[in-house]
Amino acid sequence: MKHILSGIFAAAFALSASVVQAEDKPPLKIGGILDMSSLYADITGPGSETAAKMAVEDFGGEVLGRKIQVLAADHLNKADLSANIARDMLDNQGVEMIYDVAASATALAAGEIAKARNKIIVFNGPGSIRLSNEACGPYTVHYVFDTFAQANVTGLAAVKSGLDTWFFLTADYAFGQDLEKDTSNVITRTGGKVLGSVRHPLNTSDFSSFLLQAQASKAKVIGLANAGGDTVNAIKQSAEFGIMKGGQKLSPLLAFVTDIDSIGLETAQGLLLAEAFYWDMNDETRAFSKRFQERVKRPPTSAQAGVYSSVTHYLKAVKAAGTTDAAAVMKVMKETPINDFFAHNGKIREDGRMIHDMYLFEVKKPSESKGRWDDYKLLATVPGNEAFQSLEQSRCPLVKK
């Protein structure tokens, strides 16, 4: 009897010890560095944090016996603050992977911190092509879109349709400069002309002087190499100036469904724009977007949908690798195709660029829309290998040529 009791106690002790051991494992932390309060808050912000949390919940809330914890911080669109947040997350808070990092200047700053610490960082909201070119790293992924693809899809379609003279309104930082440069290259390569450009500060409230210069250029297209609140303000004010009624077209080179909703179809109708995702594409996109909208009260942007997809892809790779070691996890991430509502047969290349289809949309007329958020009609699907920069053109030091 004594032996039986001692055996029971031993088994109970072993069981309780294993439970304690599981509970003692630190959580796996992933951290978002987001614009929570300024001109990109609708594009990423609280919606990106929600998307990351949804991905964690759908995955089951834990991996390798560790609870998964989602952190988020506001970088206030300041590159130095973004770098400090990344440093604190990786050095002090035990974060294993950083997601989103809306805006290019802040992403470039956080990317250097992650690169120095050999940690995985996935960019969903920023667009600068530099993130998968000169600033690439072995554990860096550029997931949703970039300035090259936006320029390639929108610029090419416009010039082919006869809209072959352009003037740019450009946000004066890395993203805007790259977007103007990449679009200019597409325009001139396909026989169009760039008649001029003007640069404006980030978060501009008054575009009047810039729009007057664009109007005076007589360019067929005014290309908006900006994003978020800047794009919304520029389009609204151009309507007040009668620019579209005067015959010039506006082309927002990066616009999201939230921007079109802010502008309204009456003003935005007919705009051509490139997107990586739209909520109303198919049953899969509608199913995810319905769940997202129940929480956020609006459909997801492409950046937010990309957060869900990339966080899920990362967690699956951690599980498959059996470790959070960045090299092992990234190996699985690059070897495993991405098939979900966001991308079909998506693939992360050696330069960190995630290759997937891009879409050219036209904004609907009010008479064509069935209700709020029914904003786009699909004009073309551009395969990823045509939309994004080729590896042969890459300036990423990791690419073997």
UniProtKB/TrEMBL annotation:
The answer to keyword Transport applying to this record is yes
Q: Which residues form the signal peptide?
A: 1-22
Q: Which InterPro entries match?
A: BCAA_transport, Leu-bd, Peripla_BP_I
**Which keywords are on file for this protein?**
Amino-acid transport, Signal, Transport
Q: Is Transmembrane a UniProt keyword of this protein?
A: no
The transmembrane segments are none
Where does the record place the Leucine-binding protein domain?
Answer: 27-364
Family affiliation: Belongs to the leucine-binding protein family.
What is the name of the protein in this document? ABC transporter substrate-binding protein
